[in-house]
Design a protein that fits this description.
alpha/beta; Alpha-Beta Plaits; 18 helices; 23 strands; 39% helix
């Protein structure tokens, strides 16, 4: 495990990067402009540091091996001096600190805005920087990104060279977003939101967990300045382009806001944006104009990107589907508490159909679960979920597998429940070999007849405890067990103890 620093670690994306790094066992320090006790309570070290202070940034990087530079000045409007100071000069201070402190890896959080929205971007892998930008945000982030990528291979203190990579997550959504969607929703409620263009533009969205995981994927792939990803920039998204206004009109009623039907042509919106920009700058008005040329283009044009380079060279994959990410986002916007993820083990029984472990992992991910791992061909999958009704989780997985042509029955237990099974086994003693010891994990009440079936199979010892049956079975009898009417799933003792070890291991 490494010592990792995250700038902007108290923010929307930065905090999620911190959380995932901690889950993997890294030592994490994060920089912010104020205290974040709730993040420090997770086990991260917080420091109040202004990126404009080069000396403070260098001191904060002491003892660090890897840096994720997430902090930035975002927005479609503001003063040039502030954008320059934070995005350009602040990034240069981070680069210089990495070199001075002998840090070998720098992962930079960029944005697709660096290539602008003057034209539609449909499935592209890369694009040149424009001759001029529509916003100070896009311009300063592009200049910072160029500096980061040019620093790849630069000498560092103590010998060796710095390795750098840039990520461009697009339109990040998710819990704790206090900027993007809340502002759009408020405009809709105030009757000030209109469809710009014809409403048919396709865009990429990125659920925050996927954006954060991309940083960890990049960290693993960035093995040195000669790595395949070193010195390059990668678009990041959910890899599911949607029609922007259809997606918004599906979301808005779910958060108590009206749908949007009124349309404004792009040409008219751009002209209005230009006029408002001139007025705000000339009269030095406070706040921000409700339309700019940059915003008009972003709302009207298609902008979605190929994930093939990120998949190929970073090992990036989508962990949370857009449907699930949208559901979680809506729940948070409606004030519903965030469920604390728990590690669970799903046990598949009586599988009929072609089932690969890769398919099982893909389906569990598509159902909205994270940290998915599989073990052995009999069908055991470990993952994290924030859904409290585990029986409902099991039924949803069964339904998704059925759509893929696989019929099965699933029992789910949390990591703590599995640990209780291991520690409280009433049949485990030194007098008998544990090799023929099994546990049947039940999903409904087991009546007398199935128990009689177990006894006919030669289970001379059988003890029921809550939703488990502890029993000794002759070799090969576990398959016959599931065929004789016992609901749930059966696993041998060695498999159960191995699953508990995997559940305790970092993903």
């Amino acid at each position: 495990m490494a010592s990792v620093l995250v700038t902007g670690g108290g923010g929307f994306l930065g905090r999620r990067v911190v959380e995932l790094l901690l889950q993997q066992g890294h030592q994490v320090r994060f920089l912010a402009r104020s205290r974040y006790p709730e993040v420090e309570a997770l086990g991260a070290e917080g420091r109040i540091v202004d990126l404009c202070d080069a000396t403070a940034v260098e001191a904060a990087c002491e003892g660090i091996e890897i840096v994720h530079h997430v902090a930035s000045k975002a927005g479609y409007w503001g003063e040039r001096a502030e954008f320059e100071a934070i995005n350009v000069e602040g990034t240069q201070h981070v680069i210089e600190a990495c070199r001075a402190q002998g840090i070998r890896s720098l992962i930079y959080t960029s944005t697709p805005s660096v290539i602008g929205y003057e034209h539609d971007a449909e499935g592209i892998e890369s694009a040149p920087y424009p001759g001029q930008w529509e916003s100070l945000y896009g311009e300063t982030k592009a200049r910072a990104e160029q500096a980061v990528l040019e620093a790849n291979g630069a000498a560092i203190g103590g010998g060796g060279a710095l390795a750098t990579v840039s990520l461009r997550p697009h339109l990040i959504i998710g819990p704790r977003d206090n900027n993007l969607l809340p502002r759009v929703i408020q405009r809709a409620r105030d009757g000030k939101l209109a469809i710009v263009g014809d409403g048919g533009n396709l865009v990429d969205l990125t659920y925050v967990d996927n954006a954060a995981w991309a940083h960890l994927d990049a960290q693993a792939a960035l093995t040195g300045p000669d790595a395949a990803c070193a010195g390059k920039a990668y678009f990041i998204s959910n890899d599911e382009p949607v029609r922007l206004w259809d997606w918004l009109n599906d979301l808005l009623p779910r958060v108590g806001a009206p749908r949007v039907d009124r349309k404004v042509p792009l040409k008219a919106a751009s002209a209005m944006g230009g006029a408002l920009e001139w007025t705000w700058r000339t009269l030095r008005m406070r706040g921000e104009p409700r339309m700019t040329r940059f915003l008009a283009a972003a709302l009207a044009r298609s902008h979605w990107y190929s994930m093939e380079p990120a998949k190929r060279e970073l090992g990036y994959k989508v962990r949370i589907s857009l449907e699930e990410g949208t559901r979680r986002t809506v729940s948070w916007l409606n004030g519903e508490p965030l469920g604390e993820p728990v590690t669970v083990v799903a046990l598949l029984e009586a599988v009929e159909g072609e089932l690969s472990m890769a398919t099982l992992e893909q389906i569990a991910t598509a159902c909205g679960h994270t940290d998915v791992r599989t073990y052995r061909s009999e069908g055991n999958v470990i993952f994290s979920t924030d859904r409290p009704d585990l029986d409902a989780v099991a039924r949803a997985l069964e339904a998704s597998l059925a759509e893929a042509g696989v019929q099965t029955r699933i029992a789910i237990r949390t990591r703590d429940q599995l640990a209780a099974v291991v520690s409280n086994n009433p049949l485990l003693s030194g007098e008998r070999d544990a090799a023929d010891l099994h546990v049947a994990f039940l999903d409904e009440t087991t009546e007398a007849e199935p128990i009689a079936e177990l006894q006919r199979l030669g289970t001379d010892e059988l003890v029921r405890s809550d939703r488990e049956l502890y029993l000794h079975l002759p070799t090969g009898a576990d398959g016959a067990l599931s065929q004789r009417g016992v609901p749930g799933a059966v696993r041998s003792w060695p498999t159960i103890t191995k699953l508990l070890q995997l559940a305790d291991a970092p993903p």
